[in-house]
């Protein structure tokens, strides 16, 4: 699997790679609780692994930057170990990364994000940077575009965090994240105000994860499998690489950021 990964290259190697590279992929994750059966690095690791595979498909036109391994996770703070960035902190880090990449001649950037709580900030980042820094910035959720595989394999109505989707992705991409002997369904708190703030309801706002789930999970991780992870990840990589190719060919094609319609902020 050949791909340009900045963390594993010397400057002469990068100088050579920059002759063909047109776009940088910035993996963006989080450091937050994932219930009793997943490491807190989950989102950062999954974003990194997706970025590597996407870069291999689009070699030699893209490179992968270091991962932003913390994100906007205030809703998980009451579970031990979560470390959350304020949106303005994440914006500041991303802005400095984009300015650095531009200095090296890269003016197209994709934020490849695995954490729902980052999406709003990434939308703002793309709007601001594209206007202010003379770059083209895009963002996508790592596997939200895998609509067929999701439809075929995900049956929980409430999913998106340490659930059958995410644990399956981890089985396929980074199995060391999972504690198979500790897998649990989401221990959902019914009747809470969070139910009135679901996507599609009249009003949305901020609620904490413990208002929705006692063990920090939603969905049903006990249904997760390597095969489901493979189906989701490979479909998503196909969709993402198809969406990115026109950018690499300098063709003016619209890029649609991926959104999971049934998915909650994770
Ligand atoms: Zn996650």
Instruction: Tell the overall outline.
Output: globular
Give the total of domains: 1
Structural class: alpha/beta
The biggest sheet, with number of strands, parallel, antiparallel or mixed sense and barrel status, is: 5 strands, parallel
- According to CATH, the homologous superfamily is Creatininase
Q: Can you tell me the CATH topology?
A: Rossmann fold
Catalogue the unreliable spans: 257-262
CATH domain class name:
Alpha Beta
Distance between the termini: 30 Å
Backbone CA Rg:
18 Å
What sequence of helices (H) and strands (E) makes up the elements? EHEHEHEHEHHH
Short description:
This protein has helices at residues 11-17, 42-57, 87-103, 119-132, 147-153, 164-173, 226-248, and strands spanning 4-5, 23-28, 62-64, 108-113, 136-141. It has 266 residues and is of the alpha/beta class.
Q: Could you characterize the architecture of this molecule?
A:
The chain is an alpha/beta fold and 266 residues long. The chain has a single domain (4-248), classed as Creatininase (Rossmann fold). The chain has 7 helices and 5 strands. It has a 5-stranded parallel sheet, sandwiched between helices. Strand 4 (108-113), helix 4 (119-132) and strand 5 form a beta-alpha-beta unit. Helix 6 crosses helix 7. The two termini are 30 Å apart. The relative contact order is 0.18. The model is unreliable at 257-262 (pLDDT under 50).
